[in-house]
Design a protein that fits this description.
Low-confidence stretches: 169-173
Radius of gyration: 21 Å
Shape: globular
Number of strands: 17
Strand content: 25-35%
Helix content: 25-40%
Structural class: alpha/beta
Order of helices and strands: EHEHEHEHEHEHEEHEEEEEEEEEHH
Length: 337
């Protein structure tokens, strides 16, 4: 079965997904790249260059084409709900970039529209398919560390206070991504990946708390942002999720400890250090066979196309995406209160 593909939104992530579509076209030959649309025609032209795809004048052109079986939506977050509903009503299967939406109500509207139309909905939580994260899941499922008990998932980096004269304090207009009425902020835009991976390992969260700090002015410097969340799962198991910068310390990487050992990695591509009951690493688990970032997007696209072919549910389903949004919003609520 060959699926005609359309791309809505041709910014940076549009380039990532057009690449994934084209690799699928040439390797598996089970899809074709037909259309790309973006209000910026030059951006759309860049995504179709060297392909057989055409530039659409609007999203409706893509949705009306009976040859299109699935669309990838990479537009700003606040536009997702309307575009997903329109695509579903046109009978198109959908992969929408994260964050899925800004409210649980919008997530539900998207899920309901796809259910009523009988189309598949996947959400771009690609990190669960990425090198060290995917291999960690595989090792946990294989019982290498026994029952997972506690974890730390880091989106951290070493940093330094920012001199105020390096910040454009007079900037009035900011990109949509930095407007929390239009985008999901640091948690829904970034940390949602780590939340998704924690849930993939431990199951559903039963309690969560979160603190955040940053942008404190000290003399002529501003402190870096730091967010830390504590997630509790059944059986009193826990995961700490952190994002931001620490002066002089990059956070120590990510790790999962279980009843028989620990898995630790510093980079998304691996390798993973496998520890037993003692303090010394038993071995390193190579992740090179899983490839770098491109392969993660290829796997997620394949996950959607396989669900279409087999009439199954994508691993990153709309329901899974909504649970991640709910957890992210709970963390914001915890910070607020």
């Amino acid at each position: 079965m060959t699926t005609g593909m359309g791309l809505i939104g041709c910014g940076n992530m549009g380039g990532v997904w057009s690449g994934a579509i084209e690799r699928r076209v040439h390797k598996q030959q089970d899809c074709t790249f037909l259309w790309a649309f973006d209000p910026n025609r030059d951006a759309a032209a860049q995504r179709v260059a060297g392909t057989n795809a055409a530039i659409a004048t609007d999203a409706e052109t893509v949705f009306r084409d009976s040859r299109v079986g699935a669309v990838v939506i990479c537009t700003p977050t606040f536009t997702h709900v309307d575009l997903v509903i329109a695509a579903a009503q046109a009978g198109k299967h959908i992969l929408v970039e994260k964050p899925m939406a800004l409210t649980l109500g919008d997530c539900r509207r998207m899920i309901d529209a796809c259910s009523q139309a009988g189309v598949k909905l996947a959400v771009g939580q690609t990190v669960r398919f990425w090198g060290a994260f995917l291999r960690t899941r595989q090792l946990v499922e294989a019982g290498v560390i026994g029952q997972p008990w506690v974890a730390q998932l880091d989106r951290m980096g070493a940093t330094a206070p920012t001199p105020l004269d390096a910040i454009d304090m007079g900037q009035q207009r900011r990109p949509w991504r930095y407007d929390t009425q239009l985008a999901g902020g640091n948690i829904l835009e970034g940390v949602v990946h780590e939340l998704d991976c924690a849930r993939a390992i431990f199951g559903e969260v039963i309690a969560a708390s979160c603190t955040a700090s940053g942008k404190i002015i000290d003399g002529n410097h501003r402190s870096p942002i730091l967010m830390q969340a504590l997630l509790e799962f059944s059986g009193r198991r826990h995961a700490t999720v952190r994002m931001g910068g620490l002066v002089g310390y990059n956070g120590g990487g990510s790790w999962v400890s279980g009843t028989r050992g620990t898995l630790h990695f510093n980079h998304w591509e691996g390798p993973i250090d496998v520890y037993g009951p003692g303090r010394e690493a038993l071995r390193q688990e190579d992740c090179s066979d899983l490839g770098a970032g491109d392969e993660a997007y290829d796997r997620e696209l394949a996950d959607l196309l396989d669900a279409v072919r087999d009439d199954g549910e994508p691993e990153n389903s709309g329901g899974n995406g909504m649970r991640n949004i709910g957890l992210g919003l709970a963390l914001y609520r915890s910070i607020e209160t």
